[in-house]
């Protein structure tokens, strides 16, 4: 049974009172112990205490109620979960269809109607994503500045290019803000994405790329954004050539766009933020400053020369104290050990936000605006 999946997700919802928090913990413990009726009762009490509950709390409660033979309550809670968005992926729908914990609902007409609604919603979402991807892949080609295209015809939006590294075509995206003018030199931000070791291929065909928060930064600060792509066997974790290819990309972009060569900035998220330390620790650099979100300042390709992180070319980093991917205490320890040598390392902290805090809309807008106001000065 996939109870553990739901137990792990229960804690992701909004804040609630101490009494409801305790009831939720009791319900989770009951569910794990397969004491379903007790779990259902505690979920019910918790929901009465809480001002709002989350998707997976309602789904977990529905599982408990279904196994306590309270099918009406189980369906009711599933409806609430559905209204909040449950069933947005094939995995979530299959959980309801195949997990033994929901078998008691399999003949229930309301349950089957919910599943049909989820299937319809997912089909519409997948069709939308398909059309969105087609448009994305058309736009990133049509926005390219080709050799025969006049230099001043840079369209706002995204354009796809490639570099060749020993026969491997390595993609990168250039984002052009609406305020870009070819007659005026424009600063540029290089962003190195995270999740490198989980990628078997470059994901430039995925239209979700355009939702990366860094592109809003580019628009708001009238900056060109250079977004290289990486994958497990060619990325800024284990392959030095992937690091060095960034310099080639910069040179290519400078031939196509009116870049202010004195105002090029580089950084990234997670693996990309870690990679920024390699670039920042080079003795000579084309970059004015560096930035890192949720980094782990330990490189697989060699030691970081912290003494080369200078006030003239500073590195700004932000870590969240509740980061479970790269331990905050470990990162803080590395900073404290090297801060005397790394005179340009500006170490910043947020209390909460987890590893992916830049993707949290409640955090990132204000944080990124304030952060890049400092980085890009």
From TrEMBL:
Residues 1-17 form the signal peptide. Gene3D superfamilies: alpha/beta hydrolase. One of its GO terms (molecular function) is hydrolase activity. InterPro entries: AB_hydrolase_fold, Plant_Biomass_Hydrol_Est. Keywords: Hydrolase, Signal. This is Peptidase S9 prolyl oligopeptidase catalytic domain-containing protein.
């Amino acid at each position: 049974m996939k109870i553990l999946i739901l137990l792990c997700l229960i804690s992701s919802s909004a804040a609630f009172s101490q009494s409801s928090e305790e009831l939720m913990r009791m319900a989770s413990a009951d569910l794990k112990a397969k004491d379903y009726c007790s779990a259902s009762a505690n979920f019910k009490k918790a929901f009465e205490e809480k001002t709002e509950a989350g998707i997976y709390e309602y789904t977990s409660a529905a599982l408990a109620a279904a196994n306590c033979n309270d099918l009406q309550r189980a369906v009711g809670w599933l409806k609430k979960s559905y209204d909040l968005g449950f069933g947005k992926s094939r995995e979530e729908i299959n959980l309801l269809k195949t997990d033994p914990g929901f078998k008691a609902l399999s003949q229930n007409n309301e349950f089957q109607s919910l599943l049909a609604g989820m299937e319809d919603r997912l089909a519409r979402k997948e069709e939308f994503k398909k059309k969105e991807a087609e448009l994305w892949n058309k736009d990133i080609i049509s926005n390219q500045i080709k050799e025969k295209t006049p230099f001043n015809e840079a369209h706002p939006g995204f354009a796809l290019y490639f570099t060749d590294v020993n026969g491997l075509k390595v993609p990168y995206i250039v984002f052009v803000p609406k305020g870009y003018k070819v007659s005026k030199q424009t600063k540029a931000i290089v962003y190195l994405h995270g999740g490198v070791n989980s990628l078997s291929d470059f994901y430039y065909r995925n239209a979700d790329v355009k939702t990366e928060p860094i592109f809003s930064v580019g628009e708001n600060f009238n900056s060109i954004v250079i977004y290289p792509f990486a994958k497990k066997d060619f990325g800024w974790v284990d392959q030095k050539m992937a690091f060095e290819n960034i310099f080639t990309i910069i040179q290519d972009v400078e031939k196509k766009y009116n870049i202010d060569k004195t105002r090029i900035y580089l950084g990234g998220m997670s693996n990309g933020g870690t990679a920024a330390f390699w670039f920042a620790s080079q003795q000579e650099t084309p970059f004015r400053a560096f930035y890192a979100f949720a980094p782990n300042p330990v490189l697989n390709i060699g030691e970081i020369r912290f003494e080369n992180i200078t006030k003239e070319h500073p590195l700004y980093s932000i870590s969240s104290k509740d980061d479970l991917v790269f331990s905050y205490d470990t990162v803080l320890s590395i900073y404290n050990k090297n801060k005397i040598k790394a005179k340009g390392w500006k170490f910043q902290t947020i209390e909460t936000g987890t590893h992916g805090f830049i993707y949290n809309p409640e955090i990132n807008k204000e944080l990124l605006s304030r952060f890049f106001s400092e980085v890009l000065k």
